[in-house]
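C-alpha cells as discussed.
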C-alpha cells in the first residue's frame, strides 16, 4: 500500500497541475490502539493505529490495518515535504448500493455477516461503525473543494453493538425472505469497543443524509439481492 501511495503522489507532483489530493484511508488506521476493552473508547483524528501492536496481536484484519496506517502516514508526510496538499479521509464500514457485479470491501463483510458469520468476521465487525456510500462520496468532494480542509478526517454516521446490528439485520432479512444468520453466542454479546467522533468533518458544515444503521443495511441488502449475491427463499 505504501509504495502505491508514493507512486500516485509522485505522479501528481510531476503533473504540475494537481494542488490537492484526498487520500482514502480507513477508520482502521485510527482504531487499533492498545485497549483493554473495559470501556468504549471515543476515537478522533488524533488516534493512530499502532502497526507494531497489530503485528503483535495479529487480530482479524491486522495486515490491512497496519498497511492502511502506514500508507496514510507516508502520504501525509509526502505532501508536507513536497508542497502538495494531502487530506486524508477515514471512512467506517461503507454500506448502501454498489455498482460492480461483485461484493468488495465493506460490502463483502456485510454479505459474510449475513450468510456465513464466521467468528473472525464477527470479531472484525465489533467496530460496528457505518457510513452510507453516498455520504462517503459527498465527504470526499467536500474535502477536495473546501480550502479549510487539512490533515485527517474521520467519516462515520452511526454505530451499534453486534447484538444491535444482529437485531436489525435479522428483521430486515426476514422481511426480504432471507434466513437470518446464526452467530456464536459469546461474540453476539460483545460490547462496542470504539465510537467514531467525526466532529472535525461536521465542523466544515458536513451533515450525514443517512444516519441510521437500519437504512444503511437495508440499502446494502437490496443491492445484494438485485445482483443475485443474496438469495431469497420463496
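Sequence:
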Amino acid at each position: 500500500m505504501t509504495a502505491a501511495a508514493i507512486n500516485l503522489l509522485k505522479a501528481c507532483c510531476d503533473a504540475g497541475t494537481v494542488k490537492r489530493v484526498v487520500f482514502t484511508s480507513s477508520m482502521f488506521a485510527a482504531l487499533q490502539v492498545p485497549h483493554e476493552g473495559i470501556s468504549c473508547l471515543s476515537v478522533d483524528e488524533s488516534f493512530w493505529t499502532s502497526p507494531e501492536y497489530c503485528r503483535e496481536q495479529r487480530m482479524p484484519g491486522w495486515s490491512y490495518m497496519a498497511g492502511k496506517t502506514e500508507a496514510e502516514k507516508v502520504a501525509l508526510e509526502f505532501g508536507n515535504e513536497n508542497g502538495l496538499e494531502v487530506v486524508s479521509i477515514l471512512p467506517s464500514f461503507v454500506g448502501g448500493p454498489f455498482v460492480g457485479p461483485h461484493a468488495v470491501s465493506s460490502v463483502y463483510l456485510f454479505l459474510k455477516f449475513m450468510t456465513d458469520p464466521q467468528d473472525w468476521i464477527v470479531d472484525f465487525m465489533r467496530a460496528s461503525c457505518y457510513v452510507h456510500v453516498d455520504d462517503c462520496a459527498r465527504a470526499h468532494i467536500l474535502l477536495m473543494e473546501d480550502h479549510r480542509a487539512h490533515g485527517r478526517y474521520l467519516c462515520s454516521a452511526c454505530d451499534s453493538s453486534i447484538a444491535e446490528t444482529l437485531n436489525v439485520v435479522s428483521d430486515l432479512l426476514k422481511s426480504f425472505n432471507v434466513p437470518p444468520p446464526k452467530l456464536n453466542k459469546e461474540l453476539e454479546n460483545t460490547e462496542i469497543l470504539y465510537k467514531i467522533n467525526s466532529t472535525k468533518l461536521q465542523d466544515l458544515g458536513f451533515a450525514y443524509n443517512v444516519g441510521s444503521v437500519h437504512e444503511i443495511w437495508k440499502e446494502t441488502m437490496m443491492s445484494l439481492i438485485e445482483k443475485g449475491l443474496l438469495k431469497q427463499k420463496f
